[in-house]
Amino acid sequence: MSDQNEPRRGVRSYVLRQGRMTEGQKKAYERNWPKYGLSQDDGMIDPREVFGHSAMLTLEIGFGMGQSLADMAEAAPEQDFIGVEVHLPGVGALLKEIEERGLENIRVYNIDANEVIDMCLPDACLDQVMIFFPDPWHKKRHHKRRLIQPEFVQRIRHKLRVGGILHLATDWENYAEHMMDVMSESEGFANTQEPGEYSPRPDYRPVTKFEQRGEKLGHGVWDLLFHRTN
């Protein structure tokens, strides 16, 4: 595995994995990227101009193959969604879903999340940020590479409006504990549950096939929902 260029600052939000787009993903990318794609060259966006109206806006960091993001956008057409994913097959797969479902409320970045946060999103423009099943870096010596760290969380905080939600989910208990420690100590955030408690899975978060397989094997999933307080 190899990494792309270092982000401007902060922990990488990904590891670049090998993989090519299928022919269907490639064609969907070519047809739909001009309409739904966003780039760092666009600079700081105005979501109202991007979507043509003002609506609840959610950012998903690392949407994988895009199935869950497409499901959420289809279920909430009155809301807008921005997805970030560095892996081209995932971007192609999401653009294929957008085209097949006729979705108009998703825009996509194919760059590192650090660049999106620092260079593309105005402060307090987001109602929700979702980070589902990020790389757990399960070996102890790699824990420093985990995305959910105090500095990263503070940069997310500034992009959320006051009252906005940061929603994290993981199927690694050790990472869940790490997330809880980081979030519980983060200035400007408060747990939507009692202190130290995980949240029930909200109805809007789809259960993935991967998650369903894990549940059958007795694996747990932990959701954390914290809101910005100031």
Q: Structural class of the helix and strand makeup? A: alpha/beta
Looking at the overall shape, the CATH architecture is 3-Layer(aba) Sandwich
Order of helices and strands: HEHEHEHEHEHEHEHE
Distance separating the two termini: 39 Å
Mean pLDDT: 92
What is the CATH class?
A: Alpha Beta
Proportion of strand residues: 15-25%
Q: What profile does the largest beta sheet have?
A: 8 strands, mixed
- What name is given to the CATH topology? Rossmann fold
Task: Describe the secondary-structure layout.
Elements: H1 23-36, E1 37-38, H2 47-51, E2 57-61, H3 67-75, E3 80-84, H4 88-101, E4 106-109, H5 113-119, E5 126-132, H6 150-159, E6 160-170, H7 173-184, E7 189-191, H8 209-216, E8 222-228
Parallel strand pairs: 1-4, 2-3, 2-5, 3-4, 5-6
Antiparallel strand pairs: 6-8, 7-8
Would you write up a description of this structure?
This protein has an 8-stranded mixed beta sheet. The chain has a single domain (56-228), classed as 3-Layer(aba) Sandwich (Rossmann fold). Mean pLDDT is 92; it is low at 1-9. The chain contains 8 helices and 8 strands. It is 34% helix and 19% strand. The termini are far apart. The chain is of the alpha/beta class and 230 residues long. GO terms for molecular function: tRNA (guanine(46)-N7)-methyltransferase activity.
In short:
This is tRNA (guanine-N(7)-)-methyltransferase. By secondary structure, the chain is an alpha/beta fold.
